[in-house]
Amino acid sequence: MWGHCERFASSNRVLRTAASINKKTKASWSLAPYSTGSSSLRALPEKSPIRFWPGSASESQQLPPTSSTSTSASDRIKKCGVHPCTWAHPPKNVLIVQKKGDRRVTHSVRDIILHMQSRYPKINIIVEYHVWELLGTQFPSLVPFQESEQSLLSRKIDFVITVGGDGSILHVSSLFDQHPVPPVLSFSMGTLGFLLPYEISSFQDAIADVIHSRFFLQLRMRMCMTLWGEKPDHCLWLPGEQRCRELHFMNEVVLHRGREPHMTTLDAFVNGEHLTRTVADGLIVSTPTGSTAYSLSAGGPIVHPSVSTMLMTPISPRSLSFRTILLPGNAQVQLFVSPSSRSPAEVHVDGRTVFTLSPKESVQVNMSQYPLPCVSFTPEINTERRSGLGSTATKGDIIYDDWVHDINTRLQFNASFHPRGGFGAKGHAEDTYFQNIRETLQKNQSRRG
Q1: Residues 67-90, buried b or exposed e (16+ Cβ, 10 A)?
Q2: H-helix or E-strand containing 399?
Q3: Contacts by 102-110 with C-beta closer than 8 Å and gap 24+?
Q4: CB-CB neighbours of 104 under 10 Å
Q5: Where are the residues of the annotated region Disordered (predicted)?
Q6: Nearest to 284 by CA among 225, 369, 370, 371
Q7: Which residues make beta-bridge pairs with 216?
Q8: DSSP character for 235?
Q9: Distance of CA 148 to the CA centre of its chain
Q10: Is 397 a catalytic residue?
Q11: Using CA atoms, how far apart are residues 51 and 5, in angstroms rounded to an integer?
């Protein structure tokens, strides 16, 4: 159903085919009948399903799946590429998530709200309570939600707009814990912005394309974890909760010795088989998206987000031979605090401390059945909205693979030291060289197409 992962040239053909599909299926509906004008999240209409094409228009499916009878999590995640989408019905509700404590971000969110209320007055705008406290007086029609209403978000929200840094995406993931995540359109106003590709100046056109089904989805794998006690059937409760449950996350789960002076001893099991016992500061189990976060700082590899895999990376191990291991995306990983460990292990999920494990207690990690769908566009449009070049972008500027571009420009992948002086002529020659390569690749691609 999903179609196999394709190489560079084939992926671009899929994008072009998808673009034509979206043009043919351009929405012709009116937004007016779907607004309730309610100030309560519970009273808002249900979200609209999304139809997407993994390979062709004849293979339409809904995303995300909501039942156990849907395609398996590994099948959903392991298929690479972007997927063209259309709304089954007009979107009714949008959630805006912003970085806290940043006046520039708040000002930009205010501009987005003004634009949407003017251009799309029948779409309900939902915000977190702290945003409503800042902007509720100016925009009385905003719909705030409390933490107690968080479980309603997956039923109500059609798509999410984030403004801020990479932490905004992680926060969205936590808001839809244990539930399908709606499409996420991200604008970068943070420090790095590795997960938020678009400049805030492009928000009007980007929002219009999402509302009118002119967009694609890149599925980013999430994982889930469960805490277990010493007895096999003893599931541990998260702090402040009165039940055992999974916790879904986007980047990584970390077992770390915390403030303890001694290294912790951990036993790692994969699919029920003992893999290793390590004495270390800790262990990281991360997604491909998380491979550029804590795992990278601990010496782990950089992994493309379309790869279905789980990374296990040690933190300062007392061994020279323990290197990062890449496991199948559908593997089950269980990390125990060894009975011989001289210290407990703190459990951190996407940077948040959630628990402290004592000896013989463990954390079980699996792939989540609910990926995080990130909004994307055609390479030409992506380039305009990422770089700020707008209509002045040329063929040489077009970014065909966002991830490859970002690890070079944002992470400075394999950047070497340059000698002083002599940059001008050499830099111009290299620009010409790369421009010629791009033109050759485009010609080869058109022949294959």
Answers
A1: eeeeeebbebbbbbbbbbbbbebb
A2: none
A3: 102/164, 102/189, 104/189, 105/163, 105/164, 105/189, 106/131, 106/134, 106/135, 108/163, 108/187, 108/189, 108/200, 108/203, 109/135, 109/163, 110/135, 110/138
A4: 12
A5: 54-75
A6: 225
A7: 84, 376
A8: B
A9: 24
A10: no
A11: 20
Coarse DSSP helix, strand, coil percentages of the chain, rounded to the nearest 5 percent: 30, 25, 40
Residue type, 247: L
Tokens of 48: 């609209």
The span from the CA of 374 to the CA of 143, in Å, is 24
Which are the contacts of 333, defined by CB distance < 8 A and separation ≥ 6?
A: 268, 269, 270, 285, 310, 312, 327, 364, 365, 366
Question: Three-state DSSP class for 78?
Answer: helix
Q: Which of 75, 111, 158, 166 is catalytic?
A: 166
Q: What is the DSSP letter of 290?
A: G
Residues 6 or more apart whose CB falls under 8 angstroms from that of 325 comprise 275, 311, 312
Q: What is the pLDDT of residues 193-237, one digit of tens each?
A: 677 788 999 999 999 999 999 999 999 999 999 999 998 788 998
Between the alpha carbon of residue 142 and those of residues 97, 147, 171, the distances in Å are 13, 16, 20
- Give per-residue pLDDT as tens, 257-280: 999 999 999 999 999 999 999 999
> What's the length of the chain?
449
Structure tokens at 332: 């089950």
- N- to C-terminal Cα distance for the chain? 22
Please report, for the chain, the start and end positions of each structural domain, with discontinuous segments joined by +: 41-61+78-220, 223-369
Q: What is the pLDDT of residues 30-64, one digit of tens each?
A: 444 444 455 789 899 999 998 876 543 333 344 44
Give me the residues paired with residue 220 across strands: 372
SS3 85: strand
Cβ neighbours of residue 252 closer than 8 Å, sequence gap 6 or more: 284, 285, 286, 287, 290, 293, 294, 295, 349, 350
223-369 folds as: Tumour Suppressor Smad4 (2.60.200)
Strands (E), 165-292: 184-188, 198-199, 215-220, 223-228, 247-249, 252-256, 264-270, 273-280, 282-286
Beta strand ranges found along 119-263 (DSSP E): 124-128, 143-145, 159-164, 184-188, 198-199, 215-220, 223-228, 247-249, 252-256
Q: How many helices (H) and strands (E) does the chain have?
A: 11, 23
Pairing of strands 93-98, 124-128: parallel
